[in-house]
Batch of 3 targets.
Target 1
Amino acid sequence: MGNVVVNTQKTAPYVGVKEPVFIDGVCVEVVQAYKYLGLQLDDRLDWSKNTDALYRKGQSRLCSRRRLGSFNICQKLLQMFYLMVIAGALFYAVVCRGSSFKKRDATWLDKLVKEAVVKEMERLEMMKFGDENTLIAEINVTADRFTVYEDVLDGRFRDRLKLDNQTGSLTVTHTTTEHEGDYKLQINSVIKRFYLHVYGVSYSDPIYEDYEDDYDEVTSKSSSGAFADDEVETVYGVKEGDSVSINSGLTEMKDDDVIQWRFGDENTLIAEINVTADRFTVYEDVLDGRFRDRLKLDNQTGSLTVTHTTAEHAGDYKLLINSEIKRFSLYVVDEVTSESVTEGYSISLNTRLPEMKDDDVIQWRFGDENTLIAEINKRFDRFTVYEDVLDGRFRDRLKLDDQTGSLTVTHTTTEHTGDYKLQINSERKRFRLIVFGLKLVKEGDSVSLNSGLTEMKDDDEILWWLEIILIAEINVTADRFTVYEDVLDGRFRDRLKLDNQTGSLTVTHTTTEHEGDYYLQINSVIKSFRLIVYDEVTSVSVKEGDSVSLNSSLTEVKYFDEIQWRFGDENTLIAEINKRFDRITVYEDVLDGRFRDRLKLDNQTGSLTVTHTTTEHAGEYLMMYSRRFSSKVFIVSVYDSVHCCGPTEAVIRLVLSALVGVATVSIVVYDIRSRRAERDQAHIHTSGSIKI
């Protein structure tokens, strides 16, 4: 074998080898299959075991793709994830194994590939025109629907709109000056903007328009009868803290060039070059000094570099070279950690520090206003939470870890959904927290997911999603209410209803297939719901004054577990266990104190006992378990000595009482008759003696 060295620990002959194999005196184990370079090789070389492993891996990665999609991540990043993580696994070494597939294996992989590709294609695409944002065309890939609205705006687009069924691009034919203006393209939550200028033979350079809205992308188009492709904008993305250079497109400036760089909606001048006067100027103190010590001009090309970028530097940059105008968009992306939690549970936002240093200063901020909610100053050993800010939504809910500085939010509500900013000295991190509003429903019943609106506005667009699948939408402008009942194998067929006033969604005749995370998008605002459908109900009856135990069915509550017990139609929290914080709590004063001194929690199993029961304690008890987001429902009936607790027991007691009554009467009648017979017999005996 020359210089080849065989590792006997990583070598195995196939089962078809009859004689033992020895390499360097070591007997090598005979196997049916072996993993080599990421492939499962088997003794038949039919790749079945490799396909099984690949299918499981693909399903796992598709699950990760769904989770990413649920956090509203942009389509470009999702496509990158698909190409690198999913497609890379599916098509690895396909040249080697592709010719030897069994039919079953090919079917499995085809199904997986189709599902993966569908995930990349699922989208809602809309094109709007003008200041009124009039809908002129839309594509719904999930429903395979391509629609152009030619009769809007006095029919100016009639027989002039064409949609590309592969790319979603829009073509306007036979253009007139009536078609000049702003075109907005919305792909799911991403918005692009186009400006179309229609000119004739006497065309002069288009005048730059000051756009009032801030969109993700603006592209300028000009036309003398059709769309031309003179795209003039470049989009730049940069990680927060890094530098970015915005290219002027010049190889060298001319002697008479005058160059200006402007920023934002107000077109604030931030830098300029006058080559004739040999003057290079940056205006660092404008806009509250956000560009101070951060702007650099290239003295050969006039390109602009922004250093140490922050989110404040994101936006539109305009470059004016003499009379020519170019526009650029800059995105500043900071590291975002996405977290989600079901309403009522706790969530910890981790600093990733093993331990804070003596001079560390840590601040936690929340929301668009960057409201300070907690801070740590190690030098002064000061730990502070600001619970009364933001209308007290964080009151009694914030906890700081005194070793790592991590922040825990307890008893979460949907008001705690949003962005949390962490600053450790000069380092920044961002967390996006989604709190799912909890909705529970018994299998077979209906459940309504409330939009929170009292009435929809004329320009509202409402989308309802299950995970990343669009299941319903409302376009108020077009007066269109649509439910997509055939998606997801038809599980929603004849079960979805939209409220035509509020946009709320009702799911009727629920089954466990309808469980999951639902997202409501109202224009740019997103709300989240987690629906749990339960089918197991345990009925328990107890005599008034006695105790009743509701069994959690757990043998042990683990370290990260949370258990909550809720009561009644309002799901009022009455008791909970949080093992991580070693906290066992009963809320005895809720519901007018009916549970005061009556609740006991088993700290090992999480079971709940209600002592000294009264009829006020009868009702529905819900146990929620955080580890699997599972639940159990108990119906407790309390009866007194007169009234039994249920119709079945009432009938049994009535029958028993009747039987006892009949038996008692029978015994009494029998006793009376026996005594009377004995008296008659004695009387006869006495009369006979007198005659003798």
Note: The chain is about 15% helix and 35% strand.
Target 2
Amino acid sequence: MALVTVTHGQTQPRSLTVKETAAGPTSKLPPRHLLLLASATGIGGTFQYGFNISVMNAPTWDIKNFINNTYCERHSMFIDDNLVTLLWSVMVSIYTAGGALGSFLTGPLASKLGRKKALLANNSLALLAAVIMGVSYPLRAYELIILGRFVIGMNCGLGLNLQPMYLGETAPQHLRGVMSMCGMIFLPLGIMVGQVVGLPEILGRPGGWPLILSVTAIPALLQIFTLPSCPESPRFLLIDKNDVDECRKALKWLGGKHMTEMEMENEMAGMREEHALIGDAGMEKSALVVARDPTLRRALITVILVGAGQQLSGLDVIYSYLVYIFSASGVAPGDMAYIAIGTGLCELLALLMSSYLIERLGRKPLLIGGYSMMALSCVIITISLSLQEYVHWMPFLSASCVFACILSFGIGPGCVTSLLPAEFFTQEARSGAYTLYGMSNWSFLFIIGMVFPFMVDGLGPFCFLFFLIDCVATAIFTFFFIPETKNRSFLEISSYFQRHNRKVYVEPECTELSRVNIRRT
């Protein structure tokens, strides 16, 4: 329950520096029905994102040959190699353009349909993309691959925003971090599945690439069949729709059979308090309104900068160096696919560790520790790659640092960052904030995808010095400007930013229930 101070008709946010009493045992794992909710959400969100990032690696040469052969069939001449590379690059990068558009649609869809229905509707994009990419081969139209990649990018842009928003609003306060981590575990699972289906023993044989690209329909169908059994966000039902009965049903499902009537009333009282403090004029702010609101500016800038730090931290460059690093370590070219699967397992292990630690250590220690370890790994990788030709054991040090960097990213930045917008904003601004946060992330992902090949060519191993600066700067920023949100209600976290914005809430006309929940001084 959020605590505020009322003075002369105004409520002033109280500092978060004083430790509050936790709203439950922080070490408790989610019960089975909450794990079902996280799984049903993650399979259509982070899983799709991870799968569609990695799925294009295995069929690269087959798709390039398809482009060349199709062009030859149309024009009786083979296409220029540079144009083939350009079309391939468009197929890969158009995914981020679709992601940015999907992020832009997050706010309107989440507000109009609700969090759960928006997630379900989003699967129609995945099914459409699977059909478009699957028929590209029989129709001899490589342009359909580009269109399908754009559509699946929209699906992932929506899913990556809706998933943490939905989990953040449905999870009990003391399990909010763990629930988000349970959803994030599906990211490395998606990456690994995308790598596994591309193995020659599975679908990686010649001519199998249309099936590989169409596999994206399976997680969409799984979410369509599993998510309807889960409730809508109770905060959306009560605060946005004022549907008390459905909110009670959702809370009963989420709380399980051991939830008492008093606990349910306390949960609803906290939501009513938030509604009273927000006021009717503040309901469901659009992305543009959120961007212009000075009371939200500090929180918005914070999540965008932390998101930028995550995207620019250099993990994509680490992956681009995998072949070079492990080849120097003696790994045969035919075994590289299995090494890639090993990196996915490493990231999965990191997320499992983070799920265990996030409600014990908090968000800030994981972020600062993760970025600090990544910075150290960047230093060692730069040195080891520079000396790889002169010292015989340096390749093994480089290979070890790759796994260390992936572990560091997974434990901190890779999992905690997406949780912050859900915790930093109250109900009326959350969907708009996620829209801006998602568009910013996809933009930075596009920029780093376009720029880092030239950085690798021009700077070689010294390109990691740029990522060293990014990791150090983000760790410092986190230490000074990000509040610890473990065991804090949404109102308490919002009050922290309100206090730093030097703004105050104007107390609306309080009902008797809302007066009971405001601690006066």
Note: The CA atoms of residues 101 and 340 lie 30 Å apart.
Target 3
Amino acid sequence: MCGIFGVINTKEKIDESRVLTVRDILAHRGPDDAGIYFSNCHPEPVEGSHSERSEESPFVALAHRRLSIIDLSPAAHQPMISDDGRYVIVFNGEIYNFEELMKEVGSRQSAVDNKFKSHSDTEVILKLFAFEGHECLNKLRGMFAFAIWDDKEKTLFAARDRFGIKPFYYYFNESDPPDGLSADKVGEVSFIFSSELKAIKYYKGNLSLNKDALDAFLKTGSVPAPMTIYNEVAALLPGHWMEIDCHPERSRRISINNYWKFEYLLGKSSVGSRQLADEENVISSTFTSFSVNSARNLKENKISKDYNEPVSSPKKMALSEMTNHGLQSLRGAARLPARQERRSNLKYNSDAKKKIREALLDTIKAHMVADVEVGAFLSGGIDSTAIVSLMRQVGQEKIKTVSVVFPDNKLDESMYASIAAKKYNTEHIEVPIYEKDLIEDFEKIMSVMDQPTIDGINTYFVSKAAKQAGLKVVLSGLGGDELFGGYPSFNLIPKYQRIKNLPLVKIFMKAAAPLLKNRLPAKAIEYMKNPNSQNSEYKLIRGLFTDDELKRLTNGQWSMVNGQLSQKMTNDFMTPDVQKANYNITSNVIANGPPAGEARVKQSLSTLQYVSMMETTYYMRNQLLRDSDVFSMAHSLELRVPFVDHKLYETVLPYLDDAYDKNFPKKMLVEAVGDIPLELVNRPKMGFTFPFEDWMMNGQLKDLIIEKIKNLNTDFNLYPFVLDLEKLHWSRLWALFILSKYND
């Protein structure tokens, strides 16, 4: 686990001292080592490149801060340069199957090739990329965000893992702010990337707040990717890769493509999923070069997405070759490839239980790969207890577990955590947390939170406790609810859908909504008024503030900016293809509703699989995973999530509908693990949360929050006291408070 940072300038040299400063801003992500690379520092030219540097050649800097987990020796130092000097990588994450891939790469190297100089997953990625280019991503199992500079072709390749466990933020010049989705941009390249927004902000300066992101935050509790809190910065979406071409003899461009989608999980097998990913490139805007006019037309929505068919992605075609395809990418309507055999909804029986158990043991073994001690969070819930049990079952003799407790509070889970710790004979560490601890660490927490979120503080404190216990790596039960059906949404969404589709119910709902306005929560009234809106049930469950509430908060002036765009962006934020499609989001595109691919996605997934997708690609991706990364890394702690593993998802997801039982929480997980104490299985679901409600309504935190909300800057046009703050749910009150921090 590490911190990465990089800069590409096409016109002027890079300020090396500034890069060093920014690199060390990320020191908390990697306190063990630091490295830096500048492209104009090679003592000798790279074989096959220009004999001497052209005045038009780009200036490139790559910086790295390392938290040493695998191969603790200097041989794994980053940035890591390939044997021939052509490729340079900075990598954040862990590849759990790197030893298997190391054998594969080793068998492909010729006798004259230099062998591996380290035992690191970083070197595996570097060599595999040299062989396979972007197709190497299909072989990687783990969490990752990395960038590779090709000093021969003058291109930067970057990629992010399938689920978005590791972050990748980027800035692309001021004159053309990024949206995270664009298939092609042409012009002078000025590019910055990093693991954290604060590094880009420090290096670039003068970043402006994205009011659409604030809109999204107030409606969802987080900022959905690809948006970020800054207009000029975007997040590379999970399951995507990008390439920036800076070659002086070619048009400069940035291209983005997806290599993985959630629905690939239901392919015939992991191999089938890979084939499906390759074939379904016909319905996404892939790595092909449009002419300047074509790109402009696409951006202005003059070319339908359905007629944006690319040329098949070549195995390792050079960018210079790709430019020759031009408008061939627009030659016809997109069509689905030959049907893949799907495992969409299978019977949950004894064979299924065996497969799920094997997959669970496999993912735990994979996530235990490390050259340092691996501990675990243990709250006493089903998910964290399952992780600890499986660690013991795969042969881990010594297990150090950590939990935070809230003495004399109803949210204290210490009794359950103690039961699990005793059952599995762990070295268990409990750290009591009081309101004063939150207040003392408050400014540090806010500085860590470089994007607004209503969650994550629990991870901050339990990570702090793990660090104090001497751990560098922990396993977390995050993802268990999303995969095994642990959230109420798995019961409520199908239930609400069935009810609203009964005869005359929608008519009654719309008629009754005005009459019940002051008797039901605002979200319920919004649902009754608009039962057919996109993913209305999910917004009812996960939404924060409604449009009507935001209009009241802003004295009728909502949205903040950009006319309808701000409202439409977050009304449709639940639409997967809106976020995944590789074209610019414009008000016209969003106003026209979800892309045609949405229906295809729904058809490929069962009802509960679709709920799993929503929880995985929205709540987990945009809030839980992002918060877990930033708050654990604040304490130089690597947090691993064995349940968030594409191989495990592939195994479990086909059985979700048949196995689901609302009265038996996470039945598949409990039965596969086999020995979770009944006291923990039958306990009420609590969730890993803090006693915010008590502290906000009765403690010192209340005065701090109310005072801050009172002083919300009028730039936000917010008038929070039109709402009854005494009756407002703590999460909504907390959201207003967090928003106020972005006004400082």
Note: The chain has four domains: 2-260, 268-341, 350-485+615-710, 489-607.
